[in-house]
Amino acid sequence: MGHCGVPRPPEFVNPIHWHWVHIPRVTDPNSKAPEPVWRPQWYFLLGPLTDPAVLASILGRHDLPKVFRANTLNSYVKLWGDSDLPALIWNGRMQYRIHGVAYETESPEESQKLDEHLAMGGMYKKQIFCIFWEERPRQLPPMEKYGVVFFWNGDMSLLREGEGNLPPGMVDEDNPRQG
Fold this sequence. Notes:
The chain has helices at 52-59, 108-119; strands at residues 20-21, 37-38, 42-45, 68-73, 75-80, 85-90, 97-104, 124-133, 144-152. The protein has 179 residues and is mainly beta. The protein has a domain at 40-158: Gamma-glutamyl cyclotransferase-like (Hypothetical upf0131 protein ytfp). The strands form three sheets. It has a five-stranded antiparallel sheet, covered by helices on one side. A hairpin with a 4-residue loop joins strand 5 (75-80) and strand 6 (85-90). The longest helix is centred in the middle third of the chain and has 12 residues, at 108-119. It is globular and about 55 Å long.
């Protein structure tokens, strides 16, 4: 079991890109390996991407994507850039809860667009991490699930204190922000 109560991803899954699943078959050594199978992937989003209109623009969609209020633990937020972008920083302490939204990709192209946008040229690093739902309609998976979270991967001296573009109600006032 994983740290958040859900099973860990199987060994054949790459922990960085585990929405692409390749199951090796050992039937005929001369047969061609099967094509990777794409699976929908949950993404934890902060800042401007919590707005479905902004997310739709990045994904190239004409309709608004459905996002769900969610949070993650073991991290805190600082700001960077002229537009006060939130930088999620892992610290391993369970008492820190960061609020945002979760979105499930609907195609390999959406996953790729989000990966490229969220990595910001290497400033953020993609990790598989536990996402907890704050609202849970019936169609959602259990209250917690592994999904994609992008953590700060840049120079820490570029960051400053603050919450950034988190929408009202998405900030836990009792959440200390020091690392």
